[in-house]
TrEMBL record:
PPR repeats lie at residues 235-269. It comes from the Eukaryota. PANTHER family: PENTATRICOPEPTIDE REPEAT-CONTAINING PROTEIN (PTHR47926). Keywords: Repeat, Transit peptide. One of its GO terms (biological process) is RNA modification. Gene3D superfamilies: Tetratricopeptide repeat domain. This is Pentatricopeptide repeat-containing protein. One of its GO terms (molecular function) is RNA binding. Pfam families: E_motif, PPR. It comes from Digitaria exilis.
Length: 419
């Protein structure tokens, strides 16, 4: 009978295959260092090896369990949190605050905020990192009120409040649109944290919170202060928060102005910043600028447009009646299957308004492939044919709708079916 494979050798070989050079390997080759390297790898297949490698090593008894073994695997395999929780408890490592933090983060990543909180309450050792992991679990599950309630216990438990804590609190305040509580959190952060304006994530959360509470002028003042304190070296996260603040309140011209100012300041936009300015161009009718920003994504910044970017550009062109160009962009790079049905519906409606039967038919066919039972698409295509006096096609569509047993609900539209 062949001996079981050496888990360290398996990880070593996988890391060598995934890396073009030895620089991808840890400087000192041990099982734990290989496990950490595999767990933090950008390659999903390599991360997936962490759990079976640990199981193999544990079964063979060749590697003792400790926090350096458990924590990387918890990061790589959050779905196995319950099993690793039991293993940590059995091996006596559940008392390690590092293992408990990693477990809470894994539970939070799986939406199991109750388990993260129960683990925190039962743990004899607590610190702010552990508490922040539970806060993150609440936020990832959109449990804003429980997150705020839990944050209030930090002082009671004598846990240090840091930038991560206040960022989570401010985010929850924004989601419940509680401006008074958000302002209190802002004041508390100013008093307790040194150099608040230098914490780009916290300042970005504050800008976002004030905007969600309808206080755009406060968001502007905070952005300006952070920009001044940091000598104009604010990163793209803060710029994007301000772009979204303007966009949320329909200030499309301000979004475009702020985006141009960001680029002129030497800040490279990311996917989210570009999406914000494309959405603004869509609603403001700035077709030429929108196309320029879209093309610059790949040409100037090496960004790959996502379906959301294509959707903004397609909707923008459709509003301007440029349905042929919208179709060309929508089908570019074979991304048409990733674009939402609502975007194809917008193109179909635009084709009906401008009388472009050919593009409208193709848009409808693509939408039907995505949602074959969406009767609203058939109705809109029928309206396009009727406007073009193509009565034979209208009759054929009616037969198709009847044969498929589709019925249009009273008072609903294709948008509702496709949402």
């Amino acid at each position: 009978m062949a001996p079981p494979p050496n888990p360290a050798a398996v990880l070593h070989a996988a890391l060598l295959r995934a890396s073009s050079s030895a620089s991808g390997l840890p400087p000192r080759i041990t099982f734990n260092s290989l496990l950490a390297a595999a767990s933090s790898s950008p390659h999903p297949r390599l991360r997936a090896l962490a759990l079976p490698a640990l199981a193999l090593a544990h079964a063979a008894g060749v590697v003792p369990l400790d926090s350096y073994t458990l924590c990387p695997v918890l990061r790589a395999a959050p779905s196995a949190a319950e099993m690793l929780h039991a293993l940590a408890a059995k091996s006596g490592w559940l008392g390690s605050v590092f293992v408990s933090c990693a477990l809470a983060a894994s539970y939070g990543g799986s939406g199991r905020f109750h388990d993260a909180r129960r683990l925190f309450d039962e743990s004899p050792t607590k610190n702010s990192v552990f508490g922040n992991a539970v806060l993150a679990a609440y936020l990832s599950a959109a449990k804003w009120a429980p997150a705020l309630g839990f944050a209030r216990r930090f002082l009671e438990l004598r846990l240090q409040v840091n930038g991560c804590t206040m960022t989570a609190v401010v985010q929850a305040c924004g989601e419940v649109a509680n401006a008074d509580l958000g302002a209190q959190a802002h004041g508390h952060a100013t008093r307790r944290l040194e150099g608040l304006e230098a914490d780009m994530f916290l300042v970005s959360a504050l800008v976002d919170m004030y905007a969600k509470c309808g206080l755009v002028s406060r968001a502007e003042r905070l952005f300006g202060l952070a920009h001044q304190v940091n000598g104009g070296r604010c990163d793209v996260v803060l710029w994007t928060a301000m772009l979204n603040a303007y966009g949320r309140h329909g200030q499309c011209k301000d979004v475009i102005r702020m985006y141009d100012l960001m680029v002129a300041s030497g800040i490279y936009p990311d996917e989210l910043a570009t999406l914000a300015v494309l959405s603004a161009c869509q609603h403001a009718g700035e077709v030429a600028k929108g196309l320029k920003y879209f093309e610059s994504m790949h040409e100037h910044y090496g960004l790959v447009p996502a379906p959301e970017h294509y959707g903004c550009v397609v909707n923008m062109l459709c509003r301007a009646g440029e349905v042929a160009e919208a179709w060309e962009i929508a089908t570019k790079n074979a991304c048409d299957s990733a674009i939402s049905v609502s975007t194809w519906g917008a193109m179909l409606s635009a084709c009906k308004d401008c009388g472009n039967v050919e593009v409208g038919r193709m848009a409808a066919q693509t939408a039907i492939k995505l949602e074959p039972a969406n009767v609203g698409i058939y109705i809109e295509l029928s309206n396009l044919y009727a406007r073009a006096c193509l009565w034979e096609e209208v009759d054929q569509l009616r037969e198709v709708i009847k044969d498929k047993g589709l019925e249009k609900d009273v008072g609903s539209t294709w948008v509702e079916h496709g949402s």
